[in-house]
Amino acid sequence: MTRTLRAAGAGVAALLALSACSSSDESASSSSASSGAPGSSGSGRVSGTVTVFAAASLKESFTTLGETFEKAHPGTKVTFSFGGSDSLAASITGGAPADVFASASPKTMKIVTDAGDTSGTPVTFVRNQLEIATLPGNPDRIASLKDLTDTALKVVLCAEEVPCGAAARKALDASGLKLTPVSYEQDVKAALTKVELKEADAAVVYRTDVRAAGDKVEGVDFPESAGAVNAYPIARLEDAGNAAGADAFIDLVRSAEGRKVLTDAGFLTS
Amino acid sequence: MTAGDKAVLPRRRRRRAGAQVRGVPLPLLVPALIGLAFLIVPLLALLVRTPWSSLPELLTGAEVWQALRLSLLCATAATAVSLVIGVPLAWLLARVEFPGRGLVRALVTLPLVLPPVVGGVALLMALGRNGIVGKWLDDWFGLTLPFTTAGVVIAEAFVALPFLVISVEGTLRAADPRYEEAAATLGASRFTAFRRVTLPLIAPGIAAGAVLAWARALGEFGATITFAGNFPGRTQTMPLAVYLALQSDPEAATALSLVLLAVSVAVLAGLRDRWMTAG
After folding, report:
1. Which residue among A51, A80, A145, B236 is least crowded, i.e. fewest CB within 10 A of its CB?
2. Closest by alpha carbon to B240, among B227, B225, B254, B218?
3. Which positions in chain A touch B128 (Cβ < 8 Å)?
4. Which residue in A184, A185, A189 has the most chain B C-beta atoms within 10 A of its own C-beta, making it the best mutation to test that interface?
């Protein structure tokens, strides 16, 4: 019996050792974060890996900017995690190691700031507008948001929990339209994919997603989208292991060069 | 029985139990206990972090019961589909020699290692409105599967079927084929022998496989959300509801997870005594 207890004790000790390892890692990274913080935007001091959590809609433009960054700071590496802003926010507050968070709505950024996980105030760097994505050639001749309420059409929306869904809901409510989609997709790319695969006739997504999909979908502008523009905030995270790298990346995103890449992708940057 | 006997009996029993634990070598016991903790601690954490005070409020929403009902319905339907096509497939793999049998078996187990989301995409390519088979279903019968409850059943059956086939095939291989041969010498056709001899013989294996498939179907997420989408009451099963709740309301997600956990534990415990005892 005593031996069993001792064995159990050994097991617990092993677990404690494991957790001790991980917590010492954390303290190491946070101390490097605080030491790297002052004068962090100074070029030349940037090194190592910068981990960026970004909204799914930023995938194409941020991937391009990541390559630009790596070229400008040899030896660095930018790794991305793209996804629904809400699930990214949940991972960050849950302790996922990241240096920068760029979300698709102030609401999702607020989850992270409220948890005290950002350092400094998030800044809005782009805005994005909704657009209707239809099949190539627009065979159903969709011309307005109202056309989507036709019950013969299979329309997908983003779930209201994610920013693109919230924006779509806002636009629909503002124009008093009642739209029943066939599915509430978990993020904007999933909604777009359903149209690309021709499983859905239309989706309400961001203009940037329509542009990124090339000729696999066709975009239809609708005036109500002006009333539901999403602002994208970006911030360095409190637990950033590479604070200097994080600041340099945010600087790049907000620079003229970064703005050009984002405008080309369909974002509004003014 | 005297008073002395009564006193001796429990002590002897206790000593035997002690000897059993003491006989376990430490290099086995320690990792085993870590393994146990590894599996149980996350579940305990779920219980610890459950917002018990607001639980009734979180679970009285109509959407929760809608999602739970849909989950149970679809998992059961997917298990039924798996049984109808999976048992014959297992029999074929276990009892019929044909060229490429090893390859077929490998293909059957492929969905086990495939990420479910990839399975969902593959299903869209095959059975979607524009898929290689789905296109004909749509043209001829006006039948489209994505975004329907039937689509959920198909997605769940796709990931659950291999579990059933493997379990049943294993039982078939362990079962003595001489019973079937004896039935054949007595004039039974191969199908009659299967129905009257083999099936009763492997019933426990089929049941165990069905439970496994049901449990896998109940927890299915990736293939379902990819192939069938997410719409409350039609395709939003519990795992999808949990995932989306996690985006905006982690407390609700915890509460939903708890319900799913309780249902699975209740069902598995209920079936365990009947079918899944190790002995």
Report:
1. A80
2. B225
3. 197-199
4. A184
Residue A24 lies in a domain: no
Q: Using the beta-carbon criterion (under 8 Å), do A186 and B243 form an inter-chain contact?
A: yes
- Contact of A20 with A227, CB cutoff 8 Å: no
Inter-chain residue contact B29 with A199, CB threshold 8 Å: no
**Which chain A residues have a beta carbon less than 8 Å from that of B231?**
181-184
Chain A contact for B46 (CB, 8 A cutoff): no
Is B29 close to A14, i.e. CB distance below 8 A?
Answer: no
Global pTM value: 0.75
pLDDT tens string B109-157: 888 889 998 999 999 999 998 899 998 988 898 888 999 999 999 999 9
Question: Which tens digits make up the pLDDT trace of B2-35?
Answer: 444 444 444 444 455 555 667 788 899 999 999 9
B40-84 residue pLDDT tens: 999 898 888 888 888 888 788 777 889 999 999 999 999 999 999
CA angle A32, A34, A37 (to 5 degrees): 105
Q: Is A80 left (phi over 0), alpha (psi -120 to 50) or beta?
A: beta
Q: In terms of domains, do A114 and A137 share one?
A: no
Which neighbouring-strand residues pair with A202? A134, A155
Q: Per the structure block, which two tokens stand in for B142?
A: 């006006």
Best CATH choice for the domain B72-234 from the list 3.90.1150.10, 2.40.110.10, 3.60.40.10, 1.10.3720.10: 1.10.3720.10
The verdict on B248 touching A (C-beta cutoff 8 Å) is: yes
ipTM of the complex: 0.75
Measured between beta carbons, which residues in chain A are less than 8 angstroms from residue B21? 1, 4
Q: Is B70 exposed, middle or buried (0-12, 13-18, 19+ CB in 10 A)?
A: buried
Which pLDDT band, with edges at 50, 70 and 90, does A267 fall under? very high
**B147 with A182: Cβ contact below 8 A:** yes
